[in-house]
Amino acid sequence: MKQVLLMLIFASILLSCNSEPIDSIPNINESTRTKVNTNKKEAGSTSITAPVKTIPPFYSPKGSFSVVFPDTPKEHEHTTTSEIGKIELTQYIYGKDDTDAWVASFSDYPKKMIQLGNKEQLLKGIKSRILEDLRATVLFEEKIKLEDKYDGLSFVAKAKKKNLNITYKIFLVKNRVYQLSMYSSVGPIQAQDSIAFFGSFELIPKEYSEASN
């Protein structure tokens, strides 16, 4: 898992021209948000149920987003030089028992590139490079939306050589690319874990982000 995370640091901001057809367009809404179980005692019940422990969101003021990790992630910053110039990548990574990992990252691309380029191609290019570097095969993918207005791409993949299960979401917000991913080497990623992580992702209003710096 540690080798995989090192590969992700350098793979997630590179572009590729590969593309594949995508046909379904769901969206992310409140139904996918993490639900808090208050465990209220039913009438006539004599048993006492302990309240469910909730994990507070992790905030990245400079990334202008929040997301719920299982625990506090470590921050990594990198600068990569590409054909379009220098791109700075900030990643937040949490690993568990060398078998599971959660990653949230953001990187800013030149505004002119986003204005003149193909947004869908950019998202699919990032996906293709991730799959290439991990030697993974897509099992399922779909177009998605963040806040019903920002383009995104979601996919589930499997890297047989490393027996790695991958769930990934990419969002393009103006000229900023957000990437959220989960990895497991001990079996498929559970739906409830996926919803708890991806469903908790929210953009922070600019005013709040600036005030927190």
TrEMBL record:
Q: What residue range is the signal peptide?
A: 1-21
Family matches, as PROSITE patterns? PROKAR_LIPOPROTEIN
Q: Which domain of life is it from?
A: Bacteria
Q: Which UniProt keywords apply?
A: Signal
Record protein name field: DUF1795 domain-containing protein
Q: Which organism is it from?
A: uncultured Aureispira sp
Classification from the root reads:
Bacteria, Pseudomonadati, Bacteroidota, Saprospiria, Saprospirales
